[in-house]
């Protein structure tokens, strides 16, 4: 596990947030402690609007799956779209994440990157590292802002020599 020095810039991938919000996933304690350090301003933390989107989507689906007792992705999405009460119950859970991110932003300890990456850099990242598009988007944002660290559980970033990976 990489220790990120106090004051260093770090991009926080969606996996850290999802584990933090989980009830019983492995590394919950470590992810929550990492985010506590972010709250205290120990790191210059960054995320993108894509991270907020990913985490919110996953939290909506997880809550719906739990309430429905249904694991099949397409069935969960179908019910979320058609059942307004279910959607609102699930949104309450996902909204906790959005509110947390907004609170960290308002406190000045988290910067949310809203611009999309340069298309040529994005394409190059996919070609060079064989990344799926979402990870290429994250990497392109990280590299364009010269962020030296990423906090993630995604092993795809291990092969990127230009950044250091913190994993719980």
Explain what you see.
With 168 residues, this protein is α/β, with parallel strands linked by helices. It is built from seven helices and five strands. It has helices at 14-21, 28-39, 49-68, 73-82, 84-107, 119-129, 133-144; strands spanning 9-12, 44-48, 110-113, 149-151, 164-166. 31% of the residues are buried. The mean pLDDT is 94.
Instruction: Indicate the structural class.
Output: alpha/beta
Report the mean per-residue pLDDT as an integer. 94
Q: Please state the CA-atom Rg, rounded to the nearest Å.
A: 16 Å
Strand order of the largest sheet: 3-2-1-4-5
* Main pleated-sheet profile: 5 strands, parallel
CATH arch. level architecture:
3-Layer(aba) Sandwich
Helix content: 55-70%
Order of helices and strands: EHHEHHHEHHEE
- CATH class group: Alpha Beta
**Could you please say which CATH topology applies here?**
Rossmann fold
Give the count of structural domains: 1
Which band does the percent of strand residues land in? 5-15%
Q: Strand tally, please?
A: 5
Q: Determine the N-to-C terminus distance.
A: 6 Å
């Amino acid at each position: 596990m990489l220790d990120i020095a106090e004051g260093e810039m770090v991009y926080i991938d969606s996996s850290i947030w999802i584990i933090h919000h989980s009830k019983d996933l492995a590394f919950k304690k470590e992810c929550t402690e990492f985010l506590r350090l972010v709250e205290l301003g120990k790191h210059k933390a960054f995320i993108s609007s894509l991270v907020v989107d990913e985490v919110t989507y996953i939290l909506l689906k997880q809550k719906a799956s739990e309430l429905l007792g249904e694991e099949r992705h397409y069935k969960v999405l179908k019910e979320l779209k058609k059942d307004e009460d279910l959607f609102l119950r699930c949104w309450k859970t996902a909204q906790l994440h959005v509110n947390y991110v907004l609170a960290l932003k308002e406190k000045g300890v988290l910067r949310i990157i809203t611009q999309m990456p340069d298309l040529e850099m994005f394409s190059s990242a996919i070609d060079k590292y064989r990344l799926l598009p979402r990870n290429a988007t994250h990497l392109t944002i990280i590299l364009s802002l010269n962020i030296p660290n990423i906090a993630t559980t995604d092993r795809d970033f291990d092969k990127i020599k230009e950044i250091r990976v913190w994993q719980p």
